[in-house]
Amino acid sequence: MEVQIFGIRKSSDTRKALRFFAERRIKTHFVDLQERAASAGELRRFAQKFGVEALVDRGSRRYAELGLGAARLSEDRWLEQLADEPLLLRMPLVRRQQQLTVGDAEPTWREWTGR
Length: 115
Prior knowledge:
It is globular, with a radius of gyration of 14 Å. Strand 3 and strand 4 (99-102) form a beta hairpin. The model has no long low-confidence stretch (mean pLDDT 91). By secondary structure, it is an alpha+beta fold. It has 6 helices and 4 strands; from the N terminus they run βαβααααββα. The protein has a 4-stranded mixed sheet, with helices on both faces. It has a single domain, classed as 3-Layer(aba) Sandwich (Glutaredoxin), CATH 3.40.30.10. Helix 2 crosses helix 5 (75-84).
């Protein structure tokens, strides 16, 4: 079993996900979004399952800095914005094969691992 984790090292939820899988000796592939942005296709995969709204962290400092509170963007424009500004994402984004989670989803991760 291998999981792919998208996030930033400063995010406590991202660190929690990395620790969760490390404690269970599950191989992880970590993508630091501050070093390398997630591809539009990867973000689209999460958006198709959860919707773009679920990916946007409206409580983030970056969201407020950019003044997006009144923004009415199309789904494609949101995906471009999220690719350009990873700090707008709810983190972590976790993928195991075709299974996906957004944010802290420990109950789901436990189902994946059976532990």
